[in-house]
Amino acid sequence: MIATHPFKPIYNNESKILILGSFPSVKSREINFYYGHPQNRFWKILENIFNEKIQNNIENKKEFLLKHHIALWDTIKSCKITASSDQSIKEATPNNIDKIILNSNIQAIFCNGNTSYKIFLKFYKDKINIPIICLPSSSPANAKYSLENLTNIWKIEIKKYINI
Predict the structure, then answer these.
(1) Which phi and psi angles does 100 have, rounded to 5°?
(2) What is the pLDDT of residues 92-130, one digit of tens each?
């Protein structure tokens, strides 16, 4: 069965970086927001980078992202997927990333993990002329990176485009 991305991108005209995941996990689809699994380290990474606590509700998370000029979405609009496994993704169709690029100040795209990066390149490699950086995934399945390592790697890249 084909699963369709259930929520909208977060961005405004002041967004400077775009972070792209692959496709929402089962838990994220249940709560109808990005990185909803409590073991995913995405929100903790951002808290560490900006040295700021993020309240655990959707509105505060949106405000945090926009305050720090971060746009957020996923590369995949629809796909066949088993549970939350990126490795199981088949028949992916891309989200329309162009609308974010055209309506913001995006200076770099950061893919949260290899799946997001590979799918983004498949559909957009020659269409977008801004840096595309693959960051290690914040997923708990990416156990070879500690939270501290992820934070350091992400921060080095993000601070090239955003004042931290």
Answers:
(1) -70, -45
(2) 889 999 999 999 999 999 999 999 999 999 999 888 899
| The residue to which tokens 């993020």 are assigned | 54
Q: At residue 21, what are phi and psi to the nearest 5 degrees?
A: -85, -170
Q: Which residues contact 114 (CB under 8 A, 6 or more apart)?
A: 134, 137
CATH architecture observed for domain 10-158:
3-Layer(aba) Sandwich (3.40)
- In the predicted model, is pLDDT for residue 85 greater than 90? no
Residue 121 CB contacts under 8 Å (≥ 6 apart), including other chains: 132
List the chain domain ranges: 10-158
The number of C-alpha atoms within 13 Å of 66 and in the hemisphere containing its C-beta is 12
CA distance 3 to 126: 27
**Of 11-15, 34-38, 78-82, 84-88, which has the strongest mean pLDDT?**
11-15
